[in-house]
Amino acid sequence: MIENLQLYQKIIVGFSKLSQAMKNKSWERGSQRKISPTQGQILAFLAGRKKDAITSLSDIVDHLGVTAATVSDAVRILTEKGLIKKTVGLDDKRLINHTLTLKGLKLAQEVSEWPDFMNQALDVLPADDHERLFLILIKMIRQLQVRGEIPVSRMCATCQYFRLNMYSDNQRPHHCAFVNEPFGNRNLRLDCPDHQEADAQLLDKNWNELINKK
User: Fold this and answer.
1) In a domain, 117, yes or no
2) Among 33, 49, 52, 210, which has the minimal tally of Cβ within 10 Å of its Cβ?
3) Domain count along the chain
4) What whole-number distance in Å separates Cα of residue 172 and Cα of residue 106?
5) Is residue 43 a contact partner of residue 35, using CB atoms and an 8 Å limit?
6) Could you give the dihedral angle defined by the CA atoms of residues 106, 194, 151 and 29, in that order, rounded to the nearest 10 degrees?
7) Are 155 and 195 in contact (CB under 8 A)?
8) Rounded to the nearest 5 degrees, what angle is found at the Cα of 147, between the Cα atoms of 146 and 148?
9) What is the pLDDT of residue 172?
10) 148-182 CB burial, b ≥16 within 10 A, e <16
11) Res 214 pLDDT > 60
């Protein structure tokens, strides 16, 4: 048990170092474009929404997992810069929808592209390790979501359209009922705009199989 705790601590320290490196790059990249990391996250979130989706302030708060005051201030600044536009709901005048302007969409695409330093770090790993690492991250993210530690994202593993290990093809074992196509682990999504929450039975089935997959 003590050995496990010591290893856990080392793993956490490792994640902390990676997180710090990404945070530093995020600030560096944001300062070049005169936006904060939070503002960049908002732009990226809005860019990933469906064109007809209604995105309220609370939707952004839920996605980022930060305070409403932080999001409100960031949205205000992005609006003043002409990157976000607000429109009043047709059916409910109290509902304010947030969408990107053309300028905002262009900047969102820029800030969504991670610089090469993380790609270079991944390049030292064998190709098979990339997929294993990705599955490990999915499992950890889901566990943190279940515990309420981080916001819930729209992952394949929690989607009603996801059919885990439906085929014998090792390269494309899964099926997406939304597009009616098979796909592999490398194409599992962490934030899909077409996501629909699975019912409890399907969610448990998918998750139990995924968590036990080596």
Assistant:
1) no
2) 52
3) 2
4) 33
5) yes
6) -20
7) yes
8) 90
9) 93
10) eeeebebbbbbbebbbbeeeeeeeebbbbeeeeeb
11) no
What pLDDT, in 10s, does the model give residues 67-91?
999 999 999 999 999 999 998 877 7
Q: Is 47 a domain residue?
A: yes
Single residue among 111, 139, 173 that ends a domain in this structure: 111
Domain enclosing residue 17, as ranges: 2-111
Q: CA-to-CA distance for 151 and 145, rounded, in angstroms?
A: 6
| Residue 4: CA count within 13 A, CB half-sphere | 1
Q: Determine the pLDDT at residue 85.
A: 94
Query: Taking residues 30-58, what's their average pLDDT?
Result: 84
Residue recorded with tokens 């996605």: 63
Tens digit of each residue's pLDDT (9 = 90 or more) over 165-191: 999 998 899 999 999 999 998 899 988
Determine the Cα–Cα distance for residues 108 and 111; give it in Å rounded to an integer: 5
